[in-house]
Every structure is written in C-alpha cells, then in structure tokens.
Design goal:
The complex is a heterodimer of chains A (194) and B (182). With 194 residues, chain A is of the alpha/beta class. Chain A is built from 8 helices and 8 strands. Helix content of chain B is 46%, strand content 19%. The chains are: A alpha/beta (194), B alpha/beta (182). At the A-B interface, α3, α5 and α8 of A face β2, α3 and α5 of B.
Chain lengths: 194, 182
Amino acid sequence: MVRDGALDRRAVVAALLQDRGDTLVVTGLGSPSYDVHALGDRPGNYYLWGAMGSAALVGLGVAQARPDARVLVITGDGEQLMGLGGLATIAVAAPANLTIAVIDNGHFGETGMQVSHTGFGIALDRVAAACGFAVASVATDMAGIAAIRMGLSAPGPKLHVIKVRAENLQRSLPPRDAVFIKNRFRRHLGLATA
Amino acid sequence: MRTMTVTALSPPTPELAWPDRLHALLRGAGVTQASYVPDAGHARLIELLRADPAVTATVLTTEEEGVAIATGAWLGGARSVILMQSSGVGNCINALSSPVIARVPLLMLVTMRGEWAEFNPWQVPMGQATEAALVAIGVRVFRADTPDELLATVSAALVEAFDSDQQIAILISQKMLGTKTW
C-alpha cells in the first residue's frame, strides 16, 4: 500500500497560494500552518493551533459571512479526518466560495508519523464526492496543483486531496496569540476590533 | 445540494410565543447565522430561523462544528448563534478552546435534559455535567427558568458576547421546556 505521495508539501502550498490576491486562508493545526506561514505571514491568514477538526468549519463560517470572498482552507489529513462529519455539513450548506485543500501525507506528522486513515486507504475526495461536493479531486503532480489554483474561483464547495511526501520539514511557526491573529484578520477586512 | 424545502410555518400558539420573541431578539441584535443540532425544545426557533431569508441556518452533524462556524462567522464579520441540547455540550469541549483563547464572541442556547422529570437515564450524566463542563473550559453560564427570564438573559448575553468578546452559554431549564411525552 502506498502510504504517502511524491509531492513536496512546501512547493504544493507555494503553488496553491501563488498570486493569491485577496483569498482568505484558514489553516489546520500542525504542518499546514507551518507551510502557509513559511510563505510569509499575512493578515488574511487565520492559523489554528488547536481545536483539531475545526479548520474546514471555520472556513465555512467565514465563507457564509463573506459570500463574495474566496475562502481557502489548507489542512492535513489527520485534521480533516477528525472533522469527517463536517464534510456532510459543508455539502448541505453548499458554500460556493469555499475550497478545502487537504495536504495528505497519510500520516499524523506532528506526533511521530503514525499512519493515518488516509494512509490505510481512506479517500477523503471520495467522502466529499459522496457528500455532494461540487468538486472533489485528488492531485498527485504539480500540474494538478496548478489546475486547483486556476479553479479556486469556480463554484464550490470544493475539496482537493493533495498527495505529499511524509516528512517533517523545518517548522515555520505562526504567531500563537489567537486574539492578535483574529483582530488582524478582522482589521484586514475592515471590521472593528473590541 | 441545498434541496430541502422549508415547511410552512405553523401559527404560534401561546406556548410557542417565547421562541418567536427570541427569534426577533436575535435578529434585532444583528444575528444572521445560526447552526444547530435539533432538539424538541428548539424546534420552533429552528423553524423560524430556517424560514428567515436574512439568516443562514446550518444543520450540524455534531455540535462542535457550530463552535467552529461561529468562530469563522466572527472572523468574517457576522454574528452567529448555536442551538443544541445539553448532551451536545460534551461534544463541544475541545472545540471551545478556539473561541476561548481567541476571545471570539460565542452564544450557545442549550436546552436542558437530565435535570427535571427525566425519563431517560442516559440523559442524566451529561445533563448534570453540562454547567461544570462549560465552566471548566472557560465558558460563562447563565440559566433561565422562565420565558421572561430567558428573553432578558439572551438580551444581556448578546451585548456581552458581541460587544465584550465573551463566550456564553444559556441553559434553558427542562422545567420550563416541559417533559417529553413517551
């Protein structure tokens, strides 16, 4: 059984966010947060450091609040697996402006690289497709990543599984002050902060 | 995939009047998002929220999803409310880390089970643990035993949540909701 993919996760996330414009980004805890932060800290990023399983639903809340914004959730396979039911919730809510990119290395990277359910064969794109996502795909090469980026503005909800190598790269740590990140994100959107 | 049709609203009876008043109160305070796992005690309010074109109502598979949605809503500039039964509070605990540590406004309306004339023993442990669990994770808890008390408490909580960045749960007593018919 192939438990991880061939792609470099940092190169994948860099390609996804190339020319991101005003895309709002929510990241799941662990490596996806480091991958996004490694490209440079941005006020339109909201990094989760906990609440595992929440990233896609935080993205749903943003997408519902800002129907004209493009919202991209970048998370890991383990994080998304903890919110598996949330894929049903997102499919029913049907936010056209939400994309979920699952950076899938088939492992729980933060805790010692134990094999995850996707490593044992669970296909999150097929779960999303069964739920009724407008788009559900799996990407195994950089041409696939370019296609995902080109389709970010197409009607969703969309879920893309991206198969990357199982490796722990040097961490690029986002700020852990959640109040700061929250207020910076809101200010970026022209919203008041308490 | 939004294929479900909204059923026509039944006219409010005197017993149902408080959910109608609650709906008006939430809307008056600028709440435009609601998420829920259904409970019989919330049935009328869910019906009203789903029928309201100005409200985005989201059905959840588990209550913790609502905590995440409320966080995202606030990040995007919207006000969200979560409706659940006391059994669902237990599902939310780790997810509540997020609004607590980020000081994201949170308003949970919790219908209580397992505290008054409860027929189902399986409801009792979580019902009895609800308040303690919420307090332990850092959510402030208010109780309402009558419709008037509920309306006044929600009115105050809306200000504290959305103007003072507080995380608040309001427990609606089983005594007020009435016993379930078996």
